[in-house]
Amino acid sequence: MRSHRTVRLSMTTIGIIGAGNIGSQVARAAIANGYDVVIANSRGPETLADLVSDLGPKARAATAAEAAAAADVAVVTVPFKAYDAIPVEPLAGKIVIDTNNYYWERDGHVPALDEGRATVSGLLQEHLPTSHVAKGFNHIMASDITTAGLPAGTPGRRALATASDHADAARFVTDLYDAFGFDTVNLGPLAESWRVERDQPAYVVPQDRDELVANLARAERLAA
């Protein structure tokens, strides 16, 4: 993929916990923008040999704890039901981008989410109390991460949302989106991140910034 603007912010390594569709595409986009990538899955580094070979010399496989420890910034992209297995101590003081969505059919019912008392990323922030969690990459198809980006200022440039209780985390995601070729709409705190989750108007819909703002305003809290 083409890099649109290299953003480093003095950080060189992105640790990706979860090597599925989203994780592997974020890895490709990050490498295209000059980052080193350490990627992990639940089955062990040896199962990632083909992916790492495809990603090239700036990528290596590791355990989740090793990826967290090596990361300057981490991306958590595991099924929501596994969020409480994410290593806590190695991510202390670090920005963590949460791509997760709640699918009760897969994850089992979580009353706090079903009843609108919590958000997916808010629960991850509670699990990682010393990290700076931001929502990111949760409402885009994986393949679009490396194919739909456009240079800044291009008419109709696609926009993605972020949310965080920490300004540095939201700023990092904004800059990373821009590097990958996307505009950003900042929802504010994690308590607002439900607006861009499953079954909402903005979910996995190609949209420019104005359209995303409009779709976020149309969001309604839904019960499972």
Strand order of the largest sheet: 3-2-1-4-5-6-7-8
**Total number of beta strands:** 8
Number of helices in the DSSP assignment? 9
Computed CA radius of gyration, to the nearest angstrom: 16 Å
**Global shape:** globular
Order of helical and strand elements: EHEHEHEEHHHEHEHEH
Poorly predicted runs are 1-9
Q: Tell me about the biggest sheet?
A: 8 strands, mixed
> What is the CA–CA distance across the termini?
37 Å
Tell me the fraction of residues in β-strands, as a range.
15-25%
Mean pLDDT: 94
Structural class, judged by helices and strands?
alpha/beta
Helix content range of the residues, please?
Answer: 25-40%
Describe this structure in words.
- This protein is an alpha/beta fold and 224 residues long.
- 31% of the residues lie in helices and 16% in strands.
- It is built from 9 helices and 8 strands.
- It has helices at residues 21-32, 49-55, 64-70, 104-107, 111-114, 120-127, 142-145, 167-180, 209-217; strands spanning 13-17, 36-40, 59-61, 73-76, 95-98, 132-135, 159-164, 183-186.
- It has an 8-stranded mixed β-sheet, with helices on both faces.
- The longest helix is centred in the last third of the chain and has 14 residues, at 167-180.
- It is globular, with a radius of gyration of 16 Å.
- The chain starts with 12 loop residues before the first strand and ends in a 7-residue tail after the last helix.
- The model is unreliable at 1-9 (pLDDT under 50).
